[in-house]
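Follow-up to my earlier ticket, as requested here are the two runs.
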Amino acid sequence: MRPTRKLLCVTALAVAVTAGASTAASALGPAASQQVDGVITAAGSTCTWTGATVSADPPATATIDGGTVNSSLSCSGDASATLNNNPTLTFDDAAGTAASDLIDITVKQSIVTCSYTASGVGWTRDGSTRTYLNQAFTASKSSGSILCPESITAEPGSASLSFH
């Protein structure tokens, strides 16, 4: 698999992490335990994490702890990723949407390391569940090898976040 495809997978994962806190807690059943799991599938690879800590239960403004994402983050194949920040999320509970402030991620495949940022990433709640799906977004290269694409676009629904 080409590095660009793996980078797309991991970059989308980072965005998923950021939007993860966008669940409507009060209107959708029992209160969440301030944790989020994530899955991103792109170009035939899947990246996942479980039990990342969130500072508050949605729909309150919430920050996802990047360290707790990184502690369980794994990707299929030979790609790895690190979330470099603690993204903050705001929610519109009535509309079933959320937005993240900034996602900063570093992706490594073999000997190639690339960093990307995305801001204002939107998420849409899946029905009345605590799962959110990403809206289309583009992450821009912030540093890395000349082999790194200048930007990567994630398709809608290629990432999900589930709060519990």
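Run two:
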Amino acid sequence: MQILIRDGRHGDETLREIWQTLLDERLVGMTRFGRHLLETGDLRPGITLEEVADVLWTYISVELYELLVLLRECSPERYADHLATAITAAICRPSV
């Protein structure tokens, strides 16, 4: 559904507004989640809330799903593993 909204936004003002709302709400949600993650103390030292939110916002985008699952035929399980590995590497405190 998000792909249809994203692709249709160029020719439809309503879809453009819906797409922007989806992007904004995703960022709000990932900022809240990022704040929670920062409170755990398990994230990389010095990482900011903005950096955490940007990483999360980017990695859960429909565009990444489209590229890996729909176009490259990555299985949903492999996609989930890839996301977990990439997000962990980007924001978490290195394990010893």
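The only thing I checked on run two: The CA atoms of residues 7 and 15 lie 9 Å apart. Let me know what else you need.
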